[in-house]
Design goal:
The chain folds into four domains: about 10-155 and about 230-390, TIM Barrel (Alpha-Beta Barrel); about 160-220, no CATH class; about 400-600, 3-Layer(aba) Sandwich (Rossmann fold), CATH 3.40.50; about 615-670, Immunoglobulin-like. About 30% of the residues lie in helices and about 20% in strands. It is built from 17 helices and 28 strands. The strands form five sheets. Strands 5-4-3-2-1-9-8-7-6 form a nine-stranded parallel β-sheet, with helices on one face. A nine-stranded mixed β-sheet has the order 11-10-12-13-20-19-18-15-16, sandwiched between helices. Strands 22-23-28-25-26 form a five-stranded antiparallel β-sheet, with helices on one face. Helix 11 (about 330-340) links the parallel strand 8 and strand 9 (about 340-345). Helix 10 crosses helix 14 (about 425-440) and helix 14 crosses helix 17 (about 590-600). The two termini are about 30 Å apart.
Length: about 675
């Protein structure tokens, strides 16, 4: 079985919900799809109530017509199981399928993401829905992928989840002695003597002031792991049901990028291909999107992913929903392809008439016009992707730099009491990835379990938790001549979230050649400048570790307070390489300076590291052809000296090394070298 759906070009289209419209509208839609070169539609995402209107009644009349029409029009179909939201009858007949929230309130029917993942009734009926849809549509040549559920997320704290949590804990720890040791339960007289004494950590038990404030980090950390696994079990239930009828067609579900509640690394082996929904918070999030694309590509060891959803214009879920400026949708779509997307899909194809997404952007608006700016831009991009053909399909990113991303470290750092709740894992990662992005460096965002032997540089910001043999594998990177960079709050705890009984940064200490005895946390207004030897003076905020070199060289020093003149940034010779330690919350200029030193040592900066907001990315096709993507995120044109020659696949123009090339405002070039 191919891990990715077999297609001849980049699939283009998106979420289509014709069940909301009379059939005469379907005809208009498909005519407009033809005009926009739409070749792929995701169908049936929220059709459970229509397909199963009563406990023992299954009615496929509408879904049959929808799929038949799409196939007759030549569309490829990503067919959903329809289980993204409960039907009302199910919640009424079985109230236990409704979730209980963090405050202990049993919810009544409403919204979506509303099913308890531990409910036997939900698990049975959702799997049966997937089973019947697969039985009906398996073998249909139009169906190229299965889409299970929708944007899994949230949490439940009901009695069913409490019982399932205890079962999960038995599997993890086997004995109460092991559990008590992991949770350090001698603290505050919490020693458990029976599994049934254990309660989910919530506002009624271990928490105050919300989900991040917990008396026992180990308990809360395990509940986060459990809840992610519980929803994974829901996905697996439906995938197994599909496989009874269809052993081959790839199965996925749509992820949500850097989404804290679900550990996508734990999910990744169970998906045939990764897909995700890209809804950035504003129109200046190009570096953030690059990080998330890289994260999605890294879920399956570099395998391309699908961009399952993006808006062609604006969202509707935020307090303020800015409009994508002309050219931005095209630019961001090509950015996704540059970072490994093998499909470009939208939500939504036609705007819903009512409910909370009626003002969400769509390819086709309420008036059904083809002469809007948004539709014209969608059609123009469709024509470009059609001309591109299949050359990018399956292409890989030849990165020699890895950025470690770890949900356990994210959870553990942000539920910790001390040193500072103002330090947010995602913001630290974004700063270090931004430095790589600005340098034009291809980077893989990978789990801490990844094979690091292919990388010359490994960046591990806020690596709060060090598990297994990770410290040894990082040392091996340096031993063979590579560089490892880590930061404040790294190497603090083991996999149970208990402190290492050694100097900070724990198992990373020998590689870094330092120790940390004290640290100082301050509010965001307090600045302690850091001066780099032969470099700039930059600001540092939030956290200041008092770094004591144990063989490392001092690269940057604090300028103020009683620790003025002491080390803030160090570099340690380890084997043939280096371990870099950044003990302060440097501003972006400081982070970028450090990362640039590391990249330049290994000659890994991209062709235009000093041109702001011009992004480069490389993909290598199956036959070894290198594709260089140039993306101008500026609102003005830029001129560049060509560092590589080839043919621009979007214009067929030949580019020669040394010539001046012009990228229009928000312009794109795809250079086949």
């Amino acid at each position: 079985m191919s891990a990715l759906p077999p297609t001849s070009k980049v699939p283009y289209g998106g979420d289509y919900n014709p069940e909301q419209w009379p059939e005469d509208v379907w005809k208009q839609d498909h005519l407009l799809f033809d005009a926009a070169r739409i070749d792929t539609v995701t169908l049936g995402v929220f059709t459970w109530a229509q397909t199963q209107p009563a406990p023992d009644v299954y009615d496929f009349t509408t879904l049959d017509r929808i799929v038949e029409r799409a196939a007759a029009e030549g569309r490829q179909v990503c067919l959903a199981t329809g289980t993204g939201a409960l039907p009302p009858w199910l919640a009424k007949a079985h109230p236990e399928v409704n979730r209980t929230d963090f405050e202990g309130r049993r919810h009544r029917y409403g919204q979506r993401h509303n099913a308890c993942p531990s409910s036997p009734v939900f698990r049975r009926l959702s799997a049966e829905m997937a089973r019947r849809i697969a039985q009906r549509f398996a073998g249909n040549p139009a169906v190229i992928a299965w889409h299970v559920g929708n944007e899994y997320g949230g949490a439940c704290y009901c009695d069913l989840c409490a019982a399932a949590f205890r079962g999960w804990l038995r599997d993890r720890y086997s004995t109460l002695d092991r559990l008590n040791a992991a949770w350090n339960t001698t603290f505050w007289s919490h020693t458990f003597t029976d599994w049934d004494e254990i309660e989910p950590p919530s506002a009624l038990t271990e928490h105050w002031r919300g989900p991040d404030h917990t008396a026992f980090q180990g308990i809360t950390l395990d509940y986060l792991r459990f809840m992610s696994d519980a929803m994974l079990t829901n996905f697996q239930d439906e995938k197994r049901a599909i496989r009874e009828s269809d052993p081959d067609t790839p199965v996925t579900t749509n992820f949500m990028g850097m989404y804290r509640p679900i550990d996508y690394h734990r999910w990744a082996p169970h998906l045939d291909f990764a897909s995700w929904d890209n809804y950035p918070p504003d129109d200046t999030s190009q570096a953030r999107m690059a990080l998330t694309h890289d994260l999605m590509r890294g879920l399956k060891d570099g395998q391309p992913f699908w961009l399952m959803e993006q808006t062609p214009s604006f969202t509707a879920s935020r307090d303020v929903n800015p409009l994508k400026r002309p050219g931005l949708m095209r630019l961001w779509s090509w950015q996704a392809v540059a970072h490994g997307a093998d499909a470009v899909l939208f939500f939504q194809m036609r705007a819903s008439r009512g409910a909370c997404e009626k003002y969400h952007g769509a390819v086709i608006g309420h008036a059904g016009r083809s002469d809007t700016r948004v539709f014209r831009e969608v059609a123009d991009l469709g024509a470009e992707l059609e001309r591109l053909g299949g050359i990018t399909l399956g292409a890989r990113t030849p990165a020699r730099v890895a950025l470690l991303f770890d949900w356990d470290s994210w959870w553990a750092l942000e539920i910790s009491d001390g040193p500072s709740r103002l330090v947010r894992y995602q913001q630290v990662l974004l700063a270090y990835h931004r430095a790589l992005w600005d340098s034009g460096t291809d980077v893989d965002v990978v789990p801490v379990t990844a094979d690091l032997s292919r990388y010359d540089v490994v960046i591990a910001p806020a690596l709060h938790m060090v598990k297994g043999d990770l410290a040894e594998r990082l040392e091996q990177v340096a031993c063979r001549g590579g560089s490892v960079v880590t930061t404040f709050l790294s190497g603090r705890v083991d996999e149970d979230d208990n402190a290492f009984l050694m100097d900070v940064p724990g198992p990373l200490g020998p590689l870094m050649g330092i120790r940390v005895d004290e640290w100082d946390a301050r509010g965001p207004k307090l600045v302690n400048p850091v001066h780099f030897d032969n470099g700039p003076v930059v600001d540092a905020r939030l956290l200041f570790e008092l770094v004591i070199p144990q063989g490392a060289d001092v690269v940057g020093s604090y300028r103020e307070d009683f620790y003025a003149g002491t080390a803030a940034v160090t570099r340690n010779v380890f084997g043939a390489g280096y371990g870099w330690y950044v003990g302060a919350g440097l501003d972006q200029a400081g982070v970028s300076w450090v990362i640039r030193q590391v990249l330049d040592w290994h000659n890994l900066s991209g062709p235009y590291p000093d041109v702001p907001d011009v992004e480069t990315a490389v993909r290598v096709t199956r036959d070894g052809t290198h594709l260089l993507f140039l993306l101008n995120h500026n609102a003005e044109p830029v001129e560049l000296v060509a560092r590589a020659g080839g043919v621009d696949l979007l214009t067929d123009q030949r580019v020669r090394i040394g010539q001046i090339i012009r990228l229009d405002a928000r312009g794109v070039m795809v250079l086949r070298q």
